[in-house]
Write a structure and sequence with these properties.
By secondary structure, the chain is of the alpha+beta class. The protein contains 21 helices and 26 strands.
Length: about 700
């Protein structure tokens, strides 16, 4: 499967977007097509291989429906000066139409009245009339352009000139508000794209040179001055500074960094000049991963969005049919004047326009995804955001998720010289990336001679096996890997047992601290009626102690990765949705298998990002609760829009059919509903969810 993204420059109406998607999906080599009105992009999934002919056909379909929209196959130059006001033409046109419309009222009883109203109507409604005529000529009848054209032409035909012009003008004002809302949402994504660095200062042979971050490779040395963005994932090798991490992690306080500390691309250097060693290429950097996730998030639509999309496709033909029946049947049955029932049918058409629903629902989910990003949480789609409202159980990995994952050696039990024993343990553990292994290496006050290693192998869930150049075989790990028969097995903490050629030579005891807000996270989830489960490879005593301190409902210990997967699968499908939250190092299969996988602080793990549905950009477990707060608020706003829009429309349709509503009321109800629904959706982006903590 090959993905191709087209960038759409200009505004696309929501109903046209649905038609474009349907037509593009019918192209032979297209397996799926998703047009994102909010972002102004269309993503095609092509079967087998890239096909330029299919891409060109998709471009033609877009421009046929939206002639004013420019289609690019690559992202336009982001350094190009932005147009001051892309909607200026529409604003001036509507302003002029309103002035002429007002003059029409002054001369309503004179011969100049009709020409003025007609001029205001044509000036404001030309795009609608043109699209309606074009679509009818293609056999594409039922859309909002058709509704507005029929309603307004009908009003003029029965002598309701002011109302006909007013319907078109205020409909276009509603469309303008919609375009402004979409443009503001697009700007929120554009502002996120600004975290992408423009350059890197590379040191080559002692000379500094500005280069494109894509030209840097791992091992290069770069300089980051105060005020500059960190261009690539790197490690500080010289200097100290504070960095602003808000865009990447949502942290409000700056982070102090010293030599040896990691820098993520997208951080902003605040205070000191530092030199850093590049660890990853630009394509593998944290900022690239974040941008990719955010840009693709809206492709995964929530069930509510999908329902509204399907609803809109059948809604318009139904209301047109009802309006036609309202115009024809009552006069025949009652013998009343045809013009009276035609007027009521036109009111029915005006209020039936589905724009408020079609634009405000996706805008609500878009706002929820944007609010999550601002809080350091990447949600990969509206479907996952909606699913977070249905969670019944959160399953946690312990180390690195609920605990800090920073282990301290608290005791060493051995008959050997302590320094010699720690040297052996550090040599073995130097071959493992596990946090516990790193803590053992850090605790050794000496140099590890890795030239002594002939072969090293990590044994998942158990420990490390190492063969030295002398032929000795060492094991370091838990009691399932190293026999401790006859030894003290009651040591409190995480125990690393070490053996040489099958004989136990000592034990290292480590302790892992609970995260400061882990307990509050569990309490917050309990307040939502969500059960908590902890899965860990740690020993029974450590697991039970941590679970008791945190208030965890259920705990499973001394698990291997396959055990975690088995327990998770046993819990799936039993009631509400199940979330797994892990640090993303060894938990990729479990993250992928859960209803919702949340990777904690795993921006360095490609596998975790691919497998997880939600990525927390730091190690704060409270972000899990915050993501659910955002999801709940988003759902509330979306449901408010649905109930409000459908309720008002149904009421005014009924009043119009009974002759109790005028076309003025219909147009204000339609535009007003759309405007209020859009404003309601935009509240999500403005709410401060950090207060939920």
């Amino acid at each position: 499967m090959v993905k191709k993204e087209l960038v759409l420059e200009g505004e696309v109406c929501p109903n046209c977007a649905l038609k474009i998607e349907d037509e593009v999906r019918r192209l032979g080599s297209v397996s799926s097509a998703s047009l994102n009105v909010m972002k102004g992009t269309m993503v095609l999934e092509l079967v087998d291989d890239f096909d330029q002919g299919t891409v060109d056909a998709a471009r033609d379909i877009i421009t046929r429906h939206e002639p004013d929209v420019k289609v690019h196959e690559e992202e336009p130059d982001r350094n190009k000066p932005a147009e001051k006001d892309p909607l200026l033409k529409e604003k001036l046109t509507l302003g002029g139409a309103l002035v002429i419309f007002a003059l029409g009222f002054l001369f309503e009883d004179s011969p100049a009245g009709l020409p003025l109203f007609l001029t205001a109507y044509i000036l404001s409604g030309y795009p609608v009339l043109y699209r309606a005529a074009r679509n009818i000529s293609r056999g594409e009848v039922f859309d909002e352009n058709f509704l507005m054209a029929i309603a307004t032409v009908g009003a003029f035909s029965i002598g309701e000139y002011p109302e006909g012009a007013a319907v078109m003008i205020f409909y276009q004002i509603g469309e303008l508000f919609q375009d402004i809302a979409v443009m503001n949402s697009r700007r929120s994504i554009t502002s996120l794209l600004k975290i992408r660095p423009d350059y890197a200062v590379l040191i080559t042979d002692g000379v500094e040179k500005r280069v494109d971050p894509k030209d840097c490779t791992p091992g290069d040395i770069i300089v980051i001055r105060p005020g500059e963005k960190v261009p690539l994932d790197s490690t500080v090798i010289e200097g100290s500074t504070s960095v602003d991490t808000r865009v990447m992690t949502g942290e409000s306080m700056p982070r102090d960094l010293n030599p040896g500390d990691s820098l993520l691309s997208g951080f902003v250097n605040i205070s000191g000049l530092v030199k850093a060693r590049v660890e990853k290429t630009f394509g593998e950097s944290s900022v690239s991963k974040i941008l990719k996730i955010v840009q693709e998030a809206s492709m995964n639509k929530a069930k509510t969005e999908q329902f509204i999309t399907k609803f809109a496709r059948v809604y318009t033909p139904i209301v047109v049919g009802l309006a036609a029946a309202l115009a024809v049947i009552p006069p025949i049955v009652t013998g009343g004047p045809f013009s009276t029932w035609l007027y009521r049918a036109l009111i029915f058409l005006v209020i039936s326009c589905p724009c408020a629903l079609v634009i405000s629902i996706p805008l609500g989910f878009f706002g929820g995804i944007g609010a999550s990003s601002r809080n350091g949480i990447l949600v990969k789609g509206g479907n996952f955001l909606e699913a977070l409202n249905e969670v019944g159980t959160v399953v946690f990995d312990k180390t690195g998720t609920l605990t800090e994952g920073v282990f301290e050696v608290t005791d060493v039990v051995t008959d050997m010289d302590r320094h010699e024993f720690m040297g052996i343990a550090a040599l073995i553990e130097s071959s493992s990336p596990h946090p516990i292994a790193k803590s053992v290496v850090d605790a050794y006050c000496g140099q590890v001679d890795r030239t002594m290693i002939r072969e090293a192998k990590e044994i998942p869930g158990m420990g490390v096996s190492l063969t030295t150049t002398d032929g000795d075989i060492y094991l370091a790990g838990n009691s399932r890997l190293v026999s401790i028969e006859g030894k003290d097995a009651s040591l409190q903490g995480t125990n690393i047992h070490v053996s040489r050629n099958g004989s136990h030579i000592g034990t290292i005891v480590l302790q892992d601290r609970l995260k400061a807000n882990a307990k509050e996270t569990i309490a917050h989830l309990k307040g939502r009626g969500i059960a908590s489960v902890m899965l860990t490879g740690d020993i029974r005593e450590n697991a039970l102690s941590a679970a008791q301190d945190l208030g965890i409902d259920e705990v499973h210990y001394q698990l291997m990765p396959e055990d975690k997967l088995r327990i998770l699968e046993e819990k799936l499908g039993k009631g509400r949705k199940l979330v797994f939250a892990g640090d993303g190092i060894n938990d990729t299969p479990v993250l992928a298998r859960a209803d919702i996988g949340i990777a904690m602080g795993a921006m360095g793990s490609d596998a975790a990002i691919e497998a997880a549905d939600v990525v927390v950009m730091d190690d704060d477990p409270m972000k899990i609760a915050t993501s659910m707060d955002i999801a709940a608020y988003t759902r509330t706003v979306v449901y408010q829009n649905i109930v409000f829009a459908l309720g008002v429309k149904a009421l005014v349709m009924l009043l119009g059919a009974l002759g109790e509503a005028t076309m003025w009321q219909a147009v204000f109800a339609d535009v007003g509903v759309a405007f209020l629904a859009i404003l309601n959706s935009m509240r999500i982006m403005r709410k401060d969810f950090r207060k939920a903590k």
